[in-house]
Every structure is written in structure tokens, then in C-alpha cells.
Amino acid sequence: MELTTVWFFIVGVLLIGYFVLDGFDFGVGMALPFVSRDDTDRRVVINTIGPVWDLNETWLIVAGACLFAAFPEWYATMFSGFYLALLLILVALIFRGVSFEYRHQGKGREWTRWFDQFIFWGSLLPPLLWGTAFANLAQGLPIRTMDNGGWIYEGTLLTLLNLYGLLGGVALMLLCFTHGLVFIALKTSGEIRDRSRALAKKVGLATILVAAVFLAWTILQHLDNPMLPVVAACAIVAALALVAGWVANAVGREGRAFACNAATIVFALLTIFMALFPNLMVSSIDPAESMSIEGAASSQNTLVLMTWVAVFTMPLVLAYQAWTYWIFRKRLSRESIPQGAH
């Protein structure tokens, strides 16, 4: 296998890891006003991700750095074409991260309420916009090659807000919401757990419906794609895992439900990546103008160096993250929140 193809899948794995891990962080933030009855409940919910949310976001940073180093043309074209969408995501992530750190400063009820709102909207907007962006990648974008080399995006933010793109955004947002609710149920006890499980059943049904339409539409858009069998297989596995996760949650098996939801995200994103392969961006103007993996990759020497760095560093990163989750594996309850703490 060529190193260019290897790095296409490495970037894909990093992005999938980001959405699996930060996906339930987003879901927890979206669930905050729905499963909490008072400030103690809200502190319990936030504490479920308190030790890990910033670690989960580093996957996005690493994925972005690898994307820049391995496929600079892809990085440049996406960041110029998706500039406003990515700026909105960045602003939302900043407000969300600041809110986790500042809401507990004890400046009064209004202070806390504002930061809770920032957590909610800062958790809802990123998956909505990310899903819209990835759906547009699968559908094709108005890009063309330039005379001096490289590609240029000829659309606007409104170009991304088409029906298929928005459906992908809503599907990912609902999937993250369900993922987060199941994680809260997995990490808490008592009434918060019960409310999260009950809401996950309702949101999960909407997620199944929207995701089924999106995945079916994705398959129909790629009937002439040589990768259609792989695309269809990934979409079917994603759908089955989502249904299995809903059933597991309904019978009180939160661990299995969480694993199934994680598998849903993995195979849903694999559906997108397989629909793209062997391209990085498909041109809706002219398929001949599409950005191929080979055409957008860095030099062979750069990819070789990056491969050796990845071989030595990735096991350490994975081991550290696994250790962190193991240390903070216990369930939380209202009794675990110190009285009088902010």
C-alpha cells in the first residue's frame, strides 16, 4: 500500500477518534439543560466529562496537524472553502471550553446560567457544522484546478447549506446527543441516570430515522462509485449498530449501548471516507477536476518521516488516554458533589 493511502486512512482514524470521543462530550453538553433539575445535577453532568474533555479535543489538533503535513493541498482548499464554518466551530469550542472552567467561579446564579448556555450552544453547533461539512465532502463541492497548480473552492457558506449537507449535520448532531446521553447514564447513578436513559430512548428514535435517510441517500448518490459495495457495507453496519445501541440502552445495558453508538460513528464516517476514496475532494463542476490522494500529498520523504513519528508516538498517546479513562471510571452521583462547592 502506498504511503499516501496509508496517511489518508491515518487522518481518517484520527478524525474518527475525535468524533467518537469528543462526540459524547458534545452530547453531554447538549443534554445539560434536559437531564438536570438543579445546579447540583448540572455539576454532576459536567463532572462526567471534566477529567477528559480537553484530552478528547487534542485528537482534532493532531488530525489537523497530520492533514496539514500529509495533504497540504487538501488542508488549504478545505480551510479556504469552509472558512466561515470552521470559524464558527472554533468560536463555539472556545466558548464551551472557557465555560467549563469559569462557570464554577461562584459569581452568582446569572453568571452560572450564562456559562451553561455557552456549554449547550458550544456543544450543539460543532457537530451540526462538522456533519454538514463532511456530508458536502461526500456529495461533491464546486472546486477546480488552478493554472498554477492546486485547487480553488468556488462556492460560499450558503453552498454548504443544501438539503443533503444539512441532513448530515442534523444526523451527526443527534448521534452525538444520543452518544452523550448514554455516556451520562453510564457514568451516573440515581435520577440523573434514569432521566438520561429515558431521553436517550426518545432521541435515539429520531436519530435512527434521520441517520437511515442520510445513509440511504449517501448510497444512492454513489451508485456509479467503484467503492459502492464498501460504502453500502459501512452504511449498513452503522445502521445496525445504531439500532443495537438503542435496544441496549432500553434494557439498561449502558456499556453495550455506548460501544454500539461509538461503532455507529466509526462506520458512518467510514461511509463518508469510502465514498471519497481514492479522492480527497470530489468536484461537482467536473469530476476530472477532483482532488486525488496522490495529487494532494506531500513528498515521499515527508510521509516516511511522519510514519516513523506516528509509529513511536501513537502507542504512547493511546496508552495514556486509556489510563486516564481507567482512573476516572467510577460512577458519579449527587452525593459525590461537595456541599458548598461552586
TrEMBL record:
Primary site of residence: membrane
Compartmental location: Cell membrane
UniProtKB keywords: Cell membrane, Electron transport, Heme, Iron, Membrane, Metal-binding, Transmembrane, Transmembrane helix, Transport
Keyword Transport listed: yes
GO molecular function: electron transfer activity; metal ion binding; oxidoreductase activity, acting on diphenols and related substances as donors, oxygen as acceptor
Any single GO CC term annotated in Swiss-Prot or TrEMBL for this entry: cytochrome complex
Membrane-crossing residue ranges in chain numbering: 6-32, 77-98, 118-141, 161-186, 198-220, 226-248, 260-282, 302-328
Stored Pfam families: Cyt_bd_oxida_II (PF02322)
Gene Ontology biological process terms from the UniProt entry: aerobic electron transport chain
Keyword Glycoprotein part of the UniProt annotation: no
Membrane topology according to the record: Multi-pass membrane protein
Homology family: Belongs to the cytochrome ubiquinol oxidase subunit 2 family.
Alphabetized PANTHER family for the sequence: CYTOCHROME BD-I UBIQUINOL OXIDASE SUBUNIT 2 (PTHR43141:SF5), CYTOCHROME BD2 SUBUNIT II (PTHR43141)
NCBIfam families recorded: cydB (TIGR00203)
Protein name per UniProt: Cytochrome d ubiquinol oxidase subunit II
Gene name of this polypeptide: cydB
